[in-house]
Amino acid sequence: MEARRLDRIKRGRFFIGGKWISPTGRRMFDVITPSDETVFASVPCATEQDIAEAVAAARQAFDHGPWPRLSHAERATYLRKIADKIEADKELFGSIWTHEVGGLAAHGVFMGLVGATLFRDYATLASSFEFVERHTPTAGGAVGLLIHEPVGVVGAIIPWNAPLMMLASKIAPALLAGCTVVAKMSPEAPLAAALLGEIFDEVGLPPGVVNLLMADRTESESLVRNPDIDKISFTGSTAVGQRVASICGARMARATLELGGKSAAVVLDDAPLETVVEAIVPQLSQLSMQFCSALSRVVIPQHRHDELVDGLASAMKKIRVGDPFDPETQMGPLAMRRQLERVENYIASGKDQGLTLATGGARPPGLNRGYYIQPTLFANVPNEARVSREEIFGPVICVIPARDEDDAISIANATDFGLNNSVFTADVNRALKVSRQLRSGTVGHNAFRSDFGIAFGGYKRSGIGREGGRAGLLPYLESKTVILNEEP
Asked: Where along the chain do the CATH 3.40.605.10 domains lie?
């Protein structure tokens, strides 16, 4: 790790108006390394004054600065430079991620590459997306133009579990569209934004185009309420997302919400069970299943239930839980103490309800320091059980028996969420048929899938709008119809 550069990132300043500024308040957050519970860094909490200054800088940059007036190709040049620098810093981004949230170090490097890819993908859209469409007018006039223009100043609110990827998924399309941005980081995982701010500075992004700070929930609400913010892009819990939506709705601000999930793997009667095990178990290595699209419910015909439980339990027992910096580790700790307590509470509720605990359910032997929990499997779980119904955000999987295919689809859809599902079957046509009946934004076949290159988002209480790909660019654009009496 570049020690001197990391020390600079840890200084605890905000990137506002193209400058690194000191906070106006004195409140600080400790960033705790979850594998050993030591303090990795201390960072400031933004005050409402800090947030107002960041919004003012973004407003000035949008209304009077050069950024919205550049061509899409010119803006794409900046995106490519940002992508190159993220990729060059992938090891540093990865180390920060492991220190902040406990993800495996090797996965942290991959997250850096994903962030770079998102910026490059949106740079490519500069030439393929039709920002000015020609139409034949239907109510008079000679030339009809549908012009896609930037929505304005964007407030981006980022969760702690995948900060670089979430920053890239919001900032890259906003920048290509011509928007300016105020990004608010979670205080538990703020340092990727600090490193990204250095990159924005190095590539010469005009002042105020992107502003970065970290704040708690109370202060963050002032960002959502600020009348100079034209759009909010929020990723986080459904409860907070509902609050954000109500505020945006009251003042007609645009909003994209990527919220929670309780996704199902629907296993049909012809699916090879080894394929199911090979798809479900590796999720535990991905930040201990602390991601919204995890397949935490496995729905299977009753007559195949016990065999699948045996296969899952056997594979889960073999997972090596430990230090995320150790290349031999297959699952690290949970991200913070409150996450550990949350998961322990859900496991206790399953035990209290009399559910069958097939494996796990406790702290791993010998790991008495750090936020560790065993991979946990409940069997014969009714879909109305709390562990089946609510998002746990941790390494807990429920196997739910179904009478037949129709019952399995009904169980999968019997949730408030609709983010992700998968269908396991040897018949691709059957997979497509079932996927069309599942109420979720993504459906995979014989694997856990999500694809920010196409579109990512959910039905129902899993959110509004999509991120990634062409669909992820549209929320940062307003459409304007211009009808001319002759060719320009």
From this structure: 3-259+463-482
* Active-site annotation holds for 258: yes
Would you state the structure tokens that stand for residue 487, as one six-digit string?
Answer: 């060719």
- Please report which confidence band the pLDDT of residue 1 belongs to, taking 50, 70 and 90 as the band edges: very low
Q: Is 91 a catalytic residue?
A: no
Beta strands in 209-294 (DSSP E): 210-214, 231-235, 254-258, 263-267
Q: Which of 100, 258, 391, 467 is catalytic?
A: 258
The bridge status of strand 254-258 relative to strand 463-464 is antiparallel
Instruction: Note the pLDDT tens digit of each residue in 253-272.
Output: 999 999 999 999 999 999 99
Tokens read off for 195: 């490193």
Burial, 472: exposed, middle or buried (Cβ in 10 Å; 0-12, 13-18, 19+)? Answer: buried
In the chain, ranges of CATH 3.40.309.10 domains: 263-451
Cα-only R_g, the chain:
23
Name the DSSP letter for residue 47.
Answer: P
Report pLDDT digits (tens) over 359-405.
999 999 999 999 999 999 999 999 999 999 999 999 999 999 999 99
Helix (H), strand (E), coil (C) string for 54-67: HHHHHHHHHHHCCH
**Catalytic residue (one of 248, 292, 391, 467):** 292
Q: What CATH number should be reported for the domain whose range is 263-451?
A: 3.40.309.10
Backbone angles phi, psi at 14, to 5 degrees: -105, 145
For domain 3-259+463-482, the CATH architecture is 3-Layer(aba) Sandwich (3.40)
Cα–Cα distances in Å, from 207 out to 5, 46, 54, 62, 166? 22, 19, 11, 10, 22
CA distances from 59 to 52, 153, 196, 198, 403 (A): 10, 6, 21, 21, 57
